[in-house]
Amino acid sequence: MDKNRNQPFGNFNSLTLFTGLCLGASTSVAHAADNTAQKKEETLVIQAQAPSLYLPGVSADPKFTQPLVDTTRTVTVIPEQMIKDQGVTNLTDALKNVPGVGAFYAGENGSSSTGDAVYMRGVDTSGSIYVDGIRDIGSVTRDTFNTQQVEVIKGPAGTDYGRSAPSGSINMISKQPRLDSGLDASVSAGSAWMRRGTLDYNQAFGENSAFRLNLMGEKTHDAGRHNVENERYGVAPSLAFGLDTPTRLYINYLHVHQNNTPDGGIPTIGLPGYSAPSSATRALNSSGKVNTKNYYGTDSDFDKSTTDSFTLRFEHDLTDNTTLRNTTRWSRVKQKYLLTAVMGGASNITQPDSNNVDTWEWSRLANTKDVSNRILTNQTNLTSKFHTGFVGHDVSAGVEFTREKQTNYGVDAITPPAVNIYHPISSISVGGLSRNGANANGQTDTFGIYAFDTLELTDSFQVNGGIRLDNYHTDYDSATVCGGTGRRAVACPAGAPTGTPVTTVDTAKSGNLVNWKAGALYRLTSQGNLYANYAISQQPPGGSTFALAAGGSGNSANRTDFKPQKAKSSEIGTKWEILDKRLLLNAALFRTDIENEVASNDDGTYSQYGKKRVEGYELSAIGNITSDWQVSMGYTQQHASVKEGDTVAQDGSSALAYTPKHAFTVWSQYQATDAISVGAGARYVGSLRRGSDGAVGTPDHTEGYWVADAKLGYRVNRNLDLQLNVYNLFDKDYVASINKSGYRYHPGEPRTFLLTANVHF
To answer: Signal peptide: which range, if any (predicted)?
Structure first.
């Protein structure tokens, strides 16, 4: 089997052997000066160990200057090869390789989460997703067709990227041109009319330039749900000049268009913990679960998004040990959707025949979004290695200028008709989105400056530290159409007709955020070490949503008179590179304390005395056990709780919602023969508590579950291989996510298969 085909930097084995032979040859020549006859009779054989395609060894982000084994943080890298082996096509599925990370939250009330709605270590981390170290805004599903690897950094990441979630960050690394020529393409077909094609074409030209083109197209039905269809395509051309020279220029463009059917989930009737919301609806206690394939939306429902991103990166090696980088990116994500979901309270049920549950109906709520997210950033980074006396330094420093803008266009309200609980009919039209001028606009300008240094004090001991200062200014305004009734009704200005947009919020917030981190590492042997790390991270009011509430009003953490949320994280651990440094083992104990959380007072007002804590341990292993056996596995046990403030779990406990106490994931692949490879994986997600609100009779938690996957690969020849992936091998029925009220949930996908033909030239 051609094991070099999928290596990220071309034919690495050949390069390693060539280098080794050259070095060996120079030694032989020196020896030949003393004994030419002996040289003629001897043959020099150099053996080079192929690198693990599952263990990249280093982060692709220059802010992390040390190898992964010497990085004093819990970092999980999901490489391109593992993404291919598993047949993964989007970020959320790729993150299933990281224990305790997933899309566990289905939204609040009738609102539903869309896209990569990721929870990690007890916190919504959707606003801390980055592409090549630059924030990626938007509640869309991110395809992996142009992704080299995914890096998950746990613990507060404010020092690394500025304002971010206290749980960590997720960084997708894009593919770049390289100095070889070749084509990799795939065609896939699977369950529920799944069709997908990709192309990865790289062409070197001249001596130091290259062009790369990645294409993707996909269309599928959801195997476990009626009426849910997804369609997307993407194109990502890139150019590179000056490769293998001191001065390099990269030009990248990404365009992705999606046209999907949003899914609001299904009622939790019949799940463990469910009880009828009133005596009049007691028959629901024995009526059983609804069909998990039921679709409660309408024919009008849609979710369309367009992503455009242009990146220009310049790199110059000032010396052999000092590199200057400058990156400019403009990116825009536009999204429109209409999503209809059931509302499950007792007051929402109608009973045409009170004795026949099959006739009962639930009201529906239409969720709408018409939003444009834009970002313009210029980032300059300098990395340098040098000595001051006997102390070695590995420095990464830089400045960043970023403008982020979001416009939420106001649209007219839509009132869909009720839907039958057990026999929903979706073949109805409720119209489309109609803008009404009641828009919300947010803009955040940020200037950031940072400096990190790793000091090598001895061969065995090093310390590291860093500090980042961000100055930010956020402007936010929002309007509401006047007229109407209810406590949120807005009076119309004199002479203005009903429906006129009236500005209700117009505010701003400025401030400085100081984040820092410090760590130490001691090498026990050449293979293993002990490390410790402490970090401070802050997130200002508004976070990544830009929304601000006027100072002194509201119960939102976005009030302008509130302080930034602060997270303090400590971690101690050990990392070991074993088996000729092909397998990396990591064990870590961690604790994150989150302060300045909003909590209610006895008089009905709100203050920032709330505190949360997430603590536990994590174990992981990734790399090669043998040259033919690759593995990636991880386990975490985490205790996430409210230390002070309001209860967030419906069961009345202090536990944080949507955070499994136990989580495990493993994927293993074995090259059985030159032609046949087999793979298998499993993941466990423990019980999840849901959020707290006024819902009655709904489940307060979900049950833990195991899911297994498998893969069989067959190499036809050097240009063609076939791959069969089977997901949810034992057809496990489970709850993948649940909404805050517990009225709705998303069932896990049933057993499906995907057959892929991969060609290489």
So the answer is: 1-32
Specify the number of domains making up the chain. Answer: 1
pTM over 0.85: yes
Cβ atoms of residues 113 and 139 within 8 Å: yes
110 three-state secondary structure: coil
DSSP string, 37-82: HHHHH-------PPPPTT---B-SSTT--SBGGG-SS-EEEEEHHH
- For residues 637 and 594, the answer to whether their CB atoms sit within 8 Å is no
CA gyration radius, the chain: 28
- In one-letter notation, the amino acid at residue 514 is V
Q: Which amino acid is at 4?
A: N
Mean pLDDT on 323-333: 98
Provide the terminal-to-terminal Cα distance of the chain, rounded to the nearest Å: 14
* Structural domain range at position 739: 49-760
Give the CA dihedral 150, 155, 132, 446, nearest 10 degrees.
160
Q: Widest CA span of the chain, in angstroms?
A: 107
pLDDT in tens, 494-522: 888 988 999 999 999 999 999 999 999 99
Using the predicted structure, report yes or no on whether residue 564 has a pLDDT greater than 60: yes
Residue 269 lies in a domain: yes
604: region left, alpha or beta (phi > 0 left; psi from -120 to 50 alpha): left
| Residue pair 314/325 in contact by the 8 Å Cβ criterion | yes
> Residue 285: inside a domain, yes or no?
yes
- Token pair 């593995």 is at which residue? 631
Q: DSSP letter string over 367-431? A: EEEEEEEEEEEEEEEEEEEEEETTEEEEEEEEEEEEEEEEEE--B----PPPEESSS--------
CB neighbour burial string for 500-539, b if at least 16 within 10 angstroms, e if fewer: bbbeebebebeeebebbbbbbbebeeeeebebbbbbbbbb
Residue 329 CA to residue 606 CA, distance in Å, equals 39
Joined together, the tokens standing for residue 235 give: 């194109």
**Helix (H/G/I), strand (E/B), else coil: 287:** coil
CA pair distance 544, 390, nearest whole angstrom: 43
Which H or E element spans position 19? helix 12-32
Strand order in the sheet with 744-747: 266-267, 744-747, 735-738
d(CA 300, CA 368): 12
Residue 523 sits in a domain of what CATH number? Answer: 2.40.170.20
Closest alpha carbon to 82 in 151, 13, 131? 151
Q: What are the DSSP E strand ranges found in 524-649?
A: 528-539, 565-578, 583-600, 606-626, 629-644
- Greater confidence (24 vs 553) lies with 553
Angle at 267 between CA 265 and CA 273, to 5 degrees: 125
Structure token digits, residue 404: 């982020």
CA distance 486 to 350: 23
Q: Is there a domain that residue 240 lies in? A: yes
Q: Does residue 330 sit within a domain? A: yes
